[in-house]
């Protein structure tokens, strides 16, 4: 018989029941996870973050930095003596995580691939760190947002979503970004990329050919910081083709940011009907 989930127990994805970590010291190498941990009320347990963990600014300001998502300073992490390290398959590099595994007792690997995956992510983090009720509140907010999107009728457009310049790069159909765009009727031009990182975020050898086969170009503000000057250049290069700047936090930041991000993305799409 499956035990009931209470504030004192947690059941993981494969049915193991255990007591949430007490006195945890957490280092997060994922910006959107850092924000989510703070939304769950874990400020006192969060002892380290990357330099890209910038939200909410007033809470992260005095949390120690340990480098970037891909250039983690191992000695800085070691000095913080974390009990838990939180990483993400797309954002952090496997060799770095393996090096950290040598002295961090618990590694939590995350890999949400669609907006609805955040429901499980909230439960996972809330369960591990004893914030089940807070996780349930976030889940209810996100579910309401997802239900509102499902009730809307979105005309489908094929889009080229650009994340980098020199070389031009985009996203495959099986990424979190692509599935977030799909929630408002935007279908990315590239097929699924599978498990390989390069295939999930492919380079474009011929931008003009790619642009010719889509209804709209979207230029993300991250990881490359596209600006209006870039959009103007592409409008001139692809006459008659709509080109829009889009806030990358709406589409690529999972966790708690998905709640507000989906609402803003939906309004952004409505404005372009």
Question: How would a textbook summarize the main sheet?
Answer: 5 strands, parallel
CATH homology-level superfamily of the largest domain: Nitrogenase molybdenum iron protein domain
Chain-averaged pLDDT: 91
Using only CA atoms, what is the Rg?
20 Å
User: Rough shape?
Assistant: globular
Identify the CATH class of the largest domain: Alpha Beta
The CA-CA distance between the termini, in Å, is 51 Å
- Provide the domain count: 2
Task: Briefly note the CATH topology name of the largest domain.
Answer: Rossmann fold
Beta-strand content: 15-25%
- Class from helix and strand fractions: alpha/beta
With strands numbered from the N-terminus, the spatial order across the biggest sheet is: 5-4-3-6-7
Under the CATH scheme, which architecture of the largest domain would be assigned? 3-Layer(aba) Sandwich
Order of helices and strands: EEEHEHEHEHEHHEHEHHEHEHH
* Secondary structure tally: strands: 11
Helix share, percent: 25-40%
Low-confidence stretches: 1-16
Q: Please report the number of helical segments.
A: 12
Mind sketching the topology for me?
Elements: E1 10-11, E2 17-18, E3 26-28, H1 31-39, E4 46-49, H2 57-60, E5 64-65, H3 74-80, E6 84-88, H4 94-101, E7 106-110, H5 117-128, H6 132-151, E8 157-162, H7 176-182, E9 186-188, H8 197-200, H9 207-212, E10 216-220, H10 228-237, E11 243-246, H11 248-252, H12 257-270
Parallel strand pairs: 3-4, 3-6, 4-5, 6-7, 8-9, 8-10, 10-11
Antiparallel strand pairs: 1-2
Helix pairs in contact: 5-6, 6-12
